[in-house]
Automatic annotation (TrEMBL):
<dbReference type="GO" id="GO:0016887">
    <property type="term" value="F:ATP hydrolysis activity"/>
</dbReference>
<dbReference type="Pfam" id="PF01926">
    <property type="entry name" value="MMR_HSR1"/>
</dbReference>
<dbReference type="InterPro" id="IPR006073">
    <property type="entry name" value="GTP-bd"/>
</dbReference>
<dbReference type="InterPro" id="IPR013646">
    <property type="entry name" value="YGR210-like_G4"/>
</dbReference>
<protein>
    <submittedName>
        <fullName>Uncharacterized GTP-binding protein</fullName>
    </submittedName>
</protein>
<keyword id="KW-0547">Nucleotide-binding</keyword>
<dbReference type="InterPro" id="IPR031167">
    <property type="entry name" value="G_OBG"/>
</dbReference>
<dbReference type="GO" id="GO:0005525">
    <property type="term" value="F:GTP binding"/>
</dbReference>
<feature type="domain" description="OBG-type G">
    <location>
        <begin position="5"/>
        <end position="274"/>
    </location>
</feature>
<dbReference type="InterPro" id="IPR027417">
    <property type="entry name" value="P-loop_NTPase"/>
</dbReference>
<dbReference type="InterPro" id="IPR012675">
    <property type="entry name" value="Beta-grasp_dom_sf"/>
</dbReference>
<keyword id="KW-0342">GTP-binding</keyword>
<dbReference type="Pfam" id="PF08438">
    <property type="entry name" value="YGR210-like_G4"/>
</dbReference>
<dbReference type="GO" id="GO:0005737">
    <property type="term" value="C:cytoplasm"/>
</dbReference>
Amino acid sequence: MGREIVIGLVGKPSSGKSTTLNSLTDANAKVGAFPFTTIDPNKATGYLEVACACSRFQKQSLCKPNYGYCRNGKRGVPIMLLDVAGLVPNAHLGKGLGNKFLGDLTEADCLIHIVDASGTTNAEGKATRGYDPLQDIEWLQDEIYQWILGNLMERWGSVVRRHTSTKSTTLETLRQQLGGYSANKQLIGRALDLVPHVGPLQEWDNDTVGEVVKAFMKVKFPTVLSLNKMDHPDADKNVSKIILQHTESKCVLTSSITEVFLRKLAAQKYIKYDSGTEFVDTKDDLPDDPELKPLDEKIRKRIDNIRDLVLYRFGSTGVVQLLQAAADVLDLVPVYPVRNVHSFTGGSGTEVFRDCVLVKRGTAVASVAKKIMGDVTIAMIEGVNGTRVGEEDTVDIGKNDILSFKIVPGG
């Protein structure tokens, strides 16, 4: 398997980062073994919900993934989450766990920044009132910027001298300098495309270097803003201000503590809850359901408040939509490797679409094969109903996203 997609969760203390992480990695969702070979202490498995291919062919009852889950055509695809700790002001100067925090970031392909939209915690996460959460967003971006810029400028003179003497291209020189941030040539090339008029590298001034670093950040660390505690009375004005100020960012309104509470009630059989929606049913709603327990007045009142203040008002707790927003930012699509392209089964049995991998939209089928199969020689690639698929064909939802790879014997 190739390198996994990693989504980093960042946020100051008391912003709700740990609660959000818990809601994204809920134990009730875990069906099947872990797909990842190693899970470090600060890594966890989240579940990106997508429309499963089984629903296209009315095979929902036969769909049993090896990893994650599929419920009535809604599939939870495992995805790696990175809990980035040590977020404090001046992290780029090594304050707090700054070096570890910034070093951990290099693994991330996308960031979810948990922002306390209520304004009831200050920059250190201590209780207050009227704090402007815009400061947290700008501060985090500036920390990453200063860290990358500082590392680059520290040796910029020798970088330019080597660049000139070896007659390297700008792309090759930047690959050598920025490759340590888990950035390949294609990613750095996309960053350079955002600043097309920079001129020869040896003529760059400090402003130009800064402009290139900002472009690199856009492609290396695309960020989804989780505007958490959305149901707090003070959140409305802050949410509006953040969305107006960060028009290019994906913003998702969330209440992670509500999501965790609802999932707990569902596990205890007090409610039936369709996560990612506004639908919560209790014994009052389904009196004939034998699985549901009757509510006491305290729980009933809390559920009514949640319905009024969160679910009916916002449509959901927003937590499920967080990973979907991250997948949109990364332009990910699910691809289903199968043995049989007519029945969609694996090696044996009747269960369909056992495996699913996430790849970037537009990826060549040959690259998908390498990610799934490793370095083997592919004899033939087939799509639905045995259609021949070329190695240079690309994948998208509903297009070359169900594939069977035939390997050359001994290859």
